[in-house]
# Entry
Amino acid sequence: MGTLERREREKARVRDKIKAAARELFASEGYGAVSMRRIAEAIEYSPTAIYVHFADKDALMREICRDDFDRLSGAFAELAAITDPVERIRRVGHAYIEFGATYPNHYRLMFMTERPALALDADDLARKGRPEADGYAFLRAAVSEAIAQGRVRTGVPADAELLAQTLWAGMHGVTSIEISHCKDRWIELSPLQERARMMADLTTDGIFAPAAGASSPASETKSKAGKAQQRQAQKHSGEKKARSR
# Structure
């Protein structure tokens, strides 16, 4: 490894260290309450050393957000191959919740912390609205495709923005509760996977109809539950008849 490569690697390592400390502080203490000096103290660097890497706090926040939203978009990327837009929407919900549970500090800062309304720069504008680079655009595109296929249920407005934001709100609810209350001693939360599946199924199937000739996962689950209850009832009935003989 050459000298220049070592320097670049060390520079990247320091930047990552600064961003990790800033992300945690912004999420736990609030963006406005955290200074560049506070971040420097957290990693035992001088404020001057941080300014070598980031011009100011806004520049630092911008790069953190860009990294984290890129990571979320990457979690959606493999779902693009799913041809049925409704199933793609369902899977986006699961991927979103899994992202938040895996990276709680990232999620807190992205969706649970008040952040400054930074002006969009050229890089932001190049990403905005592109499904391969913008997670919200990915969800909205799938919703638009489902609307175009006539899959929206009767009585549900065929508004891609409204439906995408409603779906997002449901998934955010599950994710934020998991992050903020997973250690709550007052409420015993059901397993995350069960809560995620129920929210994804109920919101997706409540808005969209399955493809012609197909049944939704929610209806299949209901059917299985009904059959299980029927078998249990038959078992009890058989046992009752046996006792009465």
Notes: The chain has a mean pLDDT of 89. Residues 217-244 form the longest helix (28 residues). Residues 96 and 171 are 7 Å apart (CA to CA). The radius of gyration is 24 Å.
